[in-house]
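Appendix B, record 7
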Amino acid sequence: MNSQNLEAAQSGGRTFTLHFFDGSSRDVPVVDVEEPYPDGRLIVSRTDPDGIITHVNQSFVDMSGYSEAELLGTPHHILRHPDMPPAAFKGLWDAIKAGNRWQGYVKNLRKDGRFYWVYATVIPNLRRGKLIGYTSVRRKPSRLRIEECEALYPTLF
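Structure tokens (predicted):
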């Protein structure tokens, strides 16, 4: 158990092993404490076509708890919370790989094990008709929609 997981366990958190679509997995600390989304801020990131982070703004760094250096070159699924059903991410990837925009509510996992909700919009980035990656813009979500997702998402596993 690494120091981050030990801290989560000592603070009443849980440790999960997340398995990702690319075959990788990692142990993550999860503390059931929400980090409030700050008013008036947008979280922005860009990835390559495989979901590897190539750009983050300061709001992304602040909300995720990771440094910019830790994020760049890392798969975007580093933020995946174990409460998010795989079906939600399948829908996202199906839409954006088909060249469509995707919007939805996502529960993200911070480096310290806390979570935060976002309303995300993800669009494909094309250059001369060729896919070069994706841009994701996240905004403060509606509390009512979060409550709906908290009821729905456990039924999708």
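Remarks on this record: Residues 1-6 have pLDDT under 50 and may be disordered. The chain has five helices and seven strands.
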